[in-house]
Design goal:
homodimer; 167 residues; mainly alpha; 7 helices; globular; DNA-binding
DNA sequence: TATTGTTATACTCTATAACTATA
DNA sequence: TATAGTTATAGAGTATAACAATA
C-alpha cells in the first residue's frame, strides 16, 4: 500500500492510461458511426457480426451472447435494424423456434459506407502514433491481459446460459 | 489495403485487443462498484474527483466539463448523491450563481468501502498478468497514444465551452 | 419440460430547451 | 447580456418477467 487505494503510481498510471485511451477511442468511434451511418455501436457490431459470420447468418441467442446483451435488448436492436432495411429476420429452417438474422444488400452498403471512416478514426487516433514494433508490443501485452481475463472471469460475469443453473 | 476495411491483421489485432480488454475491465469495474457500494461509474468518478480536488470541493460546471457530461446530467447525478447523503451542494461563497460540491463523511466512507474491491478488480484483471516491466511498457505506449489523442482532438469532440461560438 | 424469441413494462441515464438568479 | 445551475421533458437503451410457439 503506497497510494490512495493500494495501487502505486505505476499501476495507477497504467490503469488510467488504458481507461482514458479506450474511452476516447470509443467516444470517437461512436460519434463517427452515428454521423456517417446513423448507427450505434451495438448496431454496428450486429452488422459486422453478420458480415463475418460463416454463412452470413446468426441466431438471436448466439448473437446476444457474443455481444453480451440480453435477448430482449437484442430483439429491440434487431427490430430497429430490420425496420431500417439493413437486416432480415426469418425463422430458422432447422429449428422453428429460432430466428436467423441475415444482412440485406442495404446492410452491406451501410457497412461499406461506414467502414472507411471507422478505420480512419482508429488509424488516426490509435495507430498513427505507434510504430510497427510498438503496435506489436502493445498487442502482445493486451493479448496476454485478454487471455488472462478470459481464463479468470470477472467473478460474477456469469455466462448468460448458466443463469438457470444458479438458482 | 489488405484486410476488410483497410486495416491489416496486426492493426486489427491491436484495435480489437484494446477494445476487448477495456470493455471487459470496465464491465467488471462497474459491476463491482454497483454491488459493493451501489454506485455507478459516474457517481464513483464524482466522488473520486471530490476526494482528489485541492480543497475537496468542485464547482458543477468544472466537474461536468472534466467528466464530459452535460450540466443537467450532472445535476441529476449530484441530486442522487446528495439524496444518498454522500455529497453536499452549497452556493459558492465568491459567486452566488455557482454551486460547490463537497464530500460528506458518509461519502468518504463510501469511497473507503468501495475502493479496496475496485483496486482488487483492476489488479486481478489487468495487473496480475503483467510484470513490472510489462506494465511500464504498456503505460508508455498508451501514454503516447493518449497524448496524441489529446493533441489531435477526435474531430468533432468540440469542447463544451465553445458551443456558443459555433453557432 | 426446456428453450427461443417477443412483448409488456419499468427504470436509468442523457440531453435540449426553457427558466431563475446572479454577475 | 452573459453565465451557473435547475427543471421539465422527451428519447434511447436496457433488463426482468410473462408469454407463445416449438423442441
Amino acid at each position: 500500500m503506497t497510494q490512495p487505494g493500494g495501487l502505486d503510481a505505476a499501476e495507477l498510471g497504467g490503469f488510467f492510461a488504458l481507461m482514458e485511451v479506450s474511452s476516447l477511442l470509443q467516444h470517437a468511434v461512436e460519434q463517427q458511426l452515428r454521423s456517417a451511418g446513423g448507427l450505434t455501436n451495438i448496431q454496428f457490431k450486429v452488422l459486422m457480426s453478420l458480415l463475418e459470420a460463416p454463412e452470413g447468418q446468426l441466431r438471436m441467442t448466439d448473437l446476444a451472447d457474443s455481444l453480451v446483451v440480453s435477448r430482449s435488448g437484442l430483439t429491440y436492436q434487431a427490430g430497429l435494424l430490420e425496420k431500417a432495411g439493413l437486416i432480415t429476420r426469418t425463422p430458422s429452417p432447422d429449428d422453428e423456434r429460432s430466428t436467423t438474422l441475415g444482412l440485406t444488400a442495404a446492410g452491406r452498403e451501410r457497412i461499406a459506407a461506414v467502414l472507411p471512416g471507422h478505420v480512419d478514426v482508429v488509424r488516426r487516433l490509435l495507430l498513427d502514433p505507434l510504430t510497427r514494433d510498438d503496435l506489436g508490443a502493445l498487442t502482445a501485452l493486451l493479448s496476454r491481459v485478454r487471455d488472462h481475463m478470459r481464463e479468470a472471469p470477472p467473478r460474477s460475469a456469469a455466462p448468460r446460459a448458466r443463469r438457470k443453473a444458479e438458482q
